[in-house]
Amino acid sequence: MKRLLSLIASCSLLLFGCRENEALYYEGEPDGTSGIYFAYYSGMTMGSSITYHYKDTTADNSLTNVAGSSAVVGVPVRVFGNISEQDRPFKVKVIGGTVKEGEDFTLPEEFVIPGGAASASVPVTIFKKDELQDGVVRYITIGLEENEYFKPYIDKRLVGNDTINVQTITIRYSMVFEEPWNWGGTSNLNNWGAYSHAKLNFMLSVMGWTYREFTSKNFVYVGPTICILTQAELQKRADAGDPVRELDGSLMQLGPKFLVDYSAYE
Q1: Would you write out the chain's pLDDT as a tens digit for each of its 266 residues?
Q2: Where in the chain is the domain with CATH 2.60.40.2030?
Q3: What separation in angstroms does the CA of 93 have from each of 140, 148, 172, 183, 221?
Q4: Angstrom distance (rounded) from CA 252 to CA 57
Q5: Alpha carbon 149 to chain centroid, angstroms
Q6: What predicted TM-score, i.e. pTM, was given to this entire model?
Q7: CA 191 to CA 104: how far, in whole Å?
Q8: Within a 10 A sphere around the Cβ of 42, how many other Cβ atoms?
Q9: Is 188 in contact with 214 (CB distance < 8 Å)?
Q10: Which of 29, 70, 232, 247 has a C-alpha 20 to 30 A away from that of 131?
Q11: Which among 170, 198, 175 has a CA at the least distance from the CA of 129?
Q12: Going by C-beta distance under 8 Å and a sequence separation of 6 or more, which residues neighbour residue 10?
């Protein structure tokens, strides 16, 4: 049994010439197939679950505040056309990226649009491995593949001023920390200097804190202690011939009050 799917569409659907917000009623193809596309919508990061926005196809997503050893990125898919009362499988494949399926991320073995439903989610499980601490942004590109139930009747969509390919999505992720809101200020900058992901990551390792714990501290009281301990560790590494460096290869340095002596490397 088929049910009519009502869509609010614009010319961005690329299937019809129409005015924005004109309601279209599309019953699907005569052979019973439906369209399927990635239908990203606004959401929030909660625990280990991330819902993608359209803008996130070009944004770098930090996993620093995701709890646990993995993060589940839920990418919504939506049906265009016939809504079946039966469960219908759909296909997703990995079509590119800088990481390996099975080692760095996993996908379920099968994907299903439940009977009576017009949407589902593709859960991509990303492992928070130690190498993510290098600050490099990794990415995974997945795409939808047609089968006997679904075909790519919608391949692009206009979102704002951007034309988005809704048959593929690139998930970019890293463990790069956002600059803490309380990092700046003359006093703090005199203590630990300009912000960098590598520097904050090193401080966290010295203090044994998480990013969330760090940002919750009152730096008026603990800032000097953080710098004293960090400076001592940086100096120890420098004196041992193994200086700590930023991602660009420069020597890691703190603010004017806690400078590390790198004269041996000049």
Answers
A1: 333 332 322 223 333 333 333 334 456 677 888 999 987 654 444 455 555 555 555 555 677 767 678 888 888 899 988 888 999 999 999 999 999 999 999 999 999 999 999 999 999 999 988 788 777 889 999 999 999 999 998 888 776 677 888 899 888 888 877 788 878 888 888 899 999 988 998 998 899 888 888 888 888 899 999 999 999 999 999 999 999 999 889 999 999 999 999 999 98
A2: 2-174
A3: 11, 16, 17, 42, 51
A4: 32
A5: 30
A6: 0.66
A7: 37
A8: 9
A9: no
A10: 232
A11: 175
A12: 18, 19, 20, 21, 22, 158
CATH assignment, 2-174: 2.60.40.2030
The H or E element containing residue 75 is strand 70-80
> CB neighbours of 122 closer than 8 A, spacing ≥ 6?
74, 75, 76, 77, 92, 107, 108, 111, 142
Amino acid at 108: P
